[in-house]
Amino acid sequence: MPPPAPLKASASRPQRALHNPRIPLEYCDGPTQRLYAVSTFVFLQAVKLYYWIGIAKSDYAAEFFGFILWLSVDVLFLLALNYLQIPWLELPTVRLIVALFILTVVNFVLFTAREISPVLIAQSTLSKVLGYVRTPSLHREPHFDPDHDEHLLGKHTILKRPFSSAVLNPRDQCFCIPDPDFVKMPSPLIPILFNGSEPHYLEYSVTSFETGLTTEHKVADPSKNSASVLRKLPDLWEDGRPVYGLQADVVGAYKLRQLKDSDGVDIKFFREKEVYVVQCPEARVDRYKETLDHCSGKGDVDIPIVARGLPPWSVTYRRSSNTGKEIQDLLIQSEPPGYSSPFLIGWSQPTKPNYSWARLHEMNLSASLSLANPGEYDFQVIKVKDGCNNVLDFTELVAKGHREPEILHVNIRSPPTVSMVCDPRKPIKIVSLNETSSTDISLDIKHGTTPYRVGYVYQKSDIDEPEIMQDIEISRKEEARIIADRPGLYTLSHIQDQYCKGDIVLPMDCSVTVASLPTVEISTTTIEDQCVGAIGVSIAATFTGEAPWKVCYDVWSNDRLQKENVCQSSSKPRLTLKMTPSESGTFRYQFRTVSDINYKLVKLDLPPVLQKIHPQPSASFTEGTTGIKACRGSTKKLGVQLGGEGPWDIKYQVIHQGRRQVFSSRDIKESKTELTVPAFEHEGTYSVDLESVTDRSNGCTKALSVSDVTIEVSSGPPTVSFQCDAPIEFAEDGHVDLPIHLTGGSPWHMTYGIEGEDSLSAARSESRNALVTIYRPGTYILKSVSDAFCEGEVVEQASKCQVVISERPAMNLKVDSIRFRGGPRGDHPEDEVAPLERLAWEKDHFVMPAVCQDAPRSLEIRLTGKAPFVLKYKTIFKSDKGGRDEEKSHTLESLHSTMRLPVLTDRTGVVTYRLETLSDAIYSDVKLLHDTFDVVFKHLIRTAPVATIQNNKKQEFCKNDVAGLAEKIPIKIQNGIGPFSLTIEVQQPNQPVEIIPVYDATTNNHGIYNWPLPSRLTGVGLHMVTVTMVTDLNGCSSGKAGKDSSIEFEILDTPSITPISDAVNACVGDNIAFSLQGATQPFEVSYSLDKSQEKIVLDAKTRSFTYHATKPGILKISQVCQTIHNRKKCCTRPEQELTARIWALPRGLIDDGNEDKISNLLEGDRVGVEITLEGEPPFSFVYVRKEAEFDVNRHHKDQRKFKILQTEYVPNIHDKQYTVYTAMEGRLATSREIKSKDDTNAMLLIMNI
Q: Which of 115, 121, 886, 1048 has its CA 20 to 30 A from that of 918?
C-alpha cells in the first residue's frame, strides 16, 4: 500500500505559523485561542471608551495622558498577538504597521477631538499638536485672543460660603518656653487650623500654672496689626487650609475664647480645648565651670546633673576621654517620687482645675565614672526631653550659637610612685670635710602631679630605733633627693602629690657611710749610671681611698725652689715617678697634697726625698740646622748648648763632597759656646756634625747623635746694575718703577740714592729682575748690594739712571680746531672748516649743529701728549618723548693725535657728551677742562616725521557721505614739526595713478590730519590711497611706512524710503506701509513711537516696511539703513518728515484688572463688582455671569468649559466707573462689545470675571 501523500500548505498562510504557534494546539486549539484574543481586544476597547467618557470635560493634559496611555496599551496588545502566532491571526510586518497606524489615528481622534466631525477633528488635531509640540514664534503677527485681551482685564468670582471653623492645636502638641538665661530660642507658635475662612478677630486666655489666675487677650485683625501675636504658617497648611501660629510668650494653659472672620461672623471651634505651654526642660552638669580631680583606684565617682522642667525627664549626656577613643552617649530617666500628670498612665482628673503638675520642678541626678582608668574625661548634657515630649538638643543649639557649651572636666589621676636611686650593694658615702658635710640620695618619682611630699625614716644601726624624719617638699621631679648628713639606713615611708597618696616601690632604702681620707706611702730607688753614678731617683707612691688619685709635690735644687706644685694623676693605687734632671746638684722632692674622688687636696706630712744627681754630658746646636748660607772664602760660627758638669771637650767634623775634616774644642767652661768653622774654599753644601762631648770633671765621654748643620756656600759675590738706556719719564705727582738686574742668590738687599744727596734708600728683592719704585725726578745711583751669602759689587757702567717728569696730555678745544664731520661741505677746501662743521659756544658748553635722525656724523678733536690716548666720557640722552635721562659711560682709544668721537643719531632728542678724563702713555685719567668749565658738547637730533593711516583696514564709505565731504581718512603724523607736506597717491581700477600733493597740513592735538576725500571720488567702486612722502618744517622727511601707509576703501550706494499712501491717521490694529529702495541687502528701518526708539531688520527680498499699530502715539520714520557686504552700514534720513498719528482702542477693567478677586457671598447679602471704562464716552458694553471656576474651598474645578448663566447689555454710559450688584454665585464678565464715540468699529471682547 503506497504511503499517503502529504497535505499542501495554504498559499495564504505561512507554514511556520500553522505548525509552530507559541501555545501548542494540544493544550488549546486554534479557534479557542482566536476567541480569547478577540475577547481581550473588545474588552480593552470597552475600557478605553469608559476612560474617554470619564475625561470628556478634562483639560488638555488629561487628554494627552490618555492618548499616550491607550496608544501604549494597543501597541503592547498587537506585539503580544504577533508573538503568540495564533493561527489566522498572525501579523506580518506590513499588516502590523498598518494595524498600529489605524489604532494611532483612532486614539488620536478619540482623545483630541471634542466632537466627531471632520472639521472639528481637523481643528482640534491642529490645536493639540501646536499646543503640545510647538512654541510661539518670536516674530509672529499680533492676533486676537478673546480669553486674554489687554482691553478686557480682570475677573471677579463670587462664592457662597458656609460657616467656617477652626481647630486649636490640631496635632495635640505640648509646647515649651525656653529660659533666656539658659538658652536663647524664640517663643513657640501654637498652630490654629482654619477651615473656610481666615481670622480677623481673636480672643484667647492664658491660665498661670503657678497662681491659677486667668488672663484674657483681645486682638483685632491679628494677622496684620499684631504680627507678633498671630502669624500665618504656610509650611503647615493642610489640604489647602490655612494654619496660623499663636505666639506663646508666657507659661500657662491657653484657650480660645472667640474667633471672627473678615465679615464679622463667628468661627466655630471647640471651646474647652486647652494647650499646655510649660517651661522648656533644662539639664546641666553641676559645677561645670570647675574641674574635678579624683585619684584612680577602686569604685566610682558620681557626676552631679541637675534637671528642671516638667517631669519625667530623659537626659542624654556624653562622656569622652582625652584620647578621643572613648565617646559614649548615655541616658538617664527619672522623675520625682509620687509625681503624676495628664501625660502619664494612672492620671485622675481633679474636680477643680489643678495645674500643680505643670509647675517648674527640679531634681538632682547623677552619672557614674569608674576610677579604675586614669585619664581626663569630659561630661556634657547633649539632649533632654520632658514629660510632654519637648526636646532640647544642646549640640544643635551650641552649633547655632543659641547656647554656650557647658562641659565638666574630670581628671582621674594616677597616684605617684617613688623609689631610691642607689645600689644596695654599694652604700652612698659622705665626704666628711666638716660638721655640715652631707650627700644626696636621688629619688625616682613617677606619675603624679607636682608638688610632692615625701616621707622617710632614718636608722643609725640595726640595734637603734628608726627615727621619723620631716617630710620633704619637691617641686620638680629632677630635683627629688634626700640630703643625708649622717651614716645609717634611710628608708622611704610615704609619698603624696597635689591630689593623691602614692606608693613606695623598690628599692625603698639606701645605706650611707662616711668616706675615708686618701693616703699615700712613698718609697724611693736610686737610678745609677756606670760612669757618672747617680743620675736620678725612682719614687713609688702607694694610695688608699677611691680612684682616681692625684699627688702634688715641689722640686728643690740646691736649696732653691725649682718647680712648685707638680701634680701626677693615677687611676691605679700604685704610681711610679722617675726623676732624672739634666743638671747636677742636690735635689729634694717634697710631697704636699693627695686627692681622690671624694676628697681634694688632702695635706701630706711626709719626709722629703733627697738625692744628689750627677747628669751625663750632652751637647746640641742652638741655631737651626738648615738655611745657613755663606760666601766662598769666609768662615762661620755655630752656637752650641752644653749639658752636664764642665769644663767640657767637644769633637766635631765638617763634611764637603765626601771629604771629612775633624776638629775639636777643649776646656770649655761655659755651657753656651761657639764653634768656628774654617774658611770655605769651594762652593757647594757643607755639613757640620757634633761627634762627642767629654765631661772633664769625671772624664766621662758621651757619643752624640744630634742633627747636623747644613751650610750652603755660594760661588762668588753678587752684582747689581740699572737697566736704563735712556731717561725715564713719569707723571707729575706720580711714580715710576726703575728696572734693576741682580746676580747671586736670593734674596738681595741693596741701597740707592739721588746723585748729590747723602740720604740712601734700601730695597729687597726675591727676583733677579727687580723694580724699584721712585717718586722724585733726578739721577739715581746704586750704592751697595748683598745677597743671602755675602756682600756684592755695583756695576760701574750701569750704576746710574736719569728720571724726568713728562708733560700732561691735553685736548685742543678751540672752536676753529674742532670739526663736526659727516655733513655737506660744499666747495670748501679740506683744510678749512665748513659752516655746517662749525660748533658754537654757549655759556658753558659747545653746541653741535642739529641733524635729523640717523644722519652719520662724528666729532674730530686734536690731542697732545704721548700716544696711545684713552678718552673717558659720558653720554646723557634726553628723549624728546620725555621720561628719565639715560646716562652711559664710554671709553675711546686712539693711537694718533687726532681722535674722532662717534655722534649718536639713532634716537631723537638731546644728547649731551661730557668729556671727563684723558690718559696717555704716562698720565692716567687727567681731568679735562675748558678754561674753568667742564668739557660738554650738546647735540639735538631731530625726529623725522612718519605718516601712517590711522586705521588701514579696508574701509567702506557711503556715497552720500563722500559727496558731502563727511568721510575723511585720518592720517597720523608722528614726530617732526608742522606744518607738514604730504604726497598722496590715489589709484582706481583701470585708471592711472593720481598723485595729490598736500601742503601746509596741520594736525590736531592727537597728531591726526584728517584728509578729506576729494569730491571727485564719488564713483561707486574700489579705491586705494597711499601716503608716499611726508616732510616737516625742518626738512626732515620719510617715505612709505610699509603697509600702514596705505588703505583701501570702497564707495557704496545708499538706500531710501517713501510712504505708499498719504494717510496720516490710524488706529491701534491698523497696518501702515512704506516702500524701500536700495541694494539687494537687508534693510534696517529706524522709527519712533512718541519717545520710544525702535529698529526692525527686513529681509533683502522685502521691498516694503509695514508697521502694525499696537498702541497709540506718533509714529515717525527716522532713517533707513543697509549693511553692505555685512560690514558698512549706509543710512539715509527722509528728506521730508514721515509721520502718522495712531489712536487707542477703548478698554474695560473689572476691579482694576484684578485676575484673582474672589468674594464670599453669605445668605441674604449681595456683592458689588466695579467696572472701569477707558476711552472716549459714551460707552456700551455687555457682561455675562458664568459658572464659578472655584469650589467653596477656593480650589479650581477640574473642567474646561463653564456655562454662561446670564447675559446683560448696558448701553450709553457716560461715566468711566460702573458698578454691577449681584446676589448669585458665579463669575461676571464683559462679553460682546464695547463702543465709544471715537471708535466706530465694534470689537468682540470676552473677559472672565
A: 886
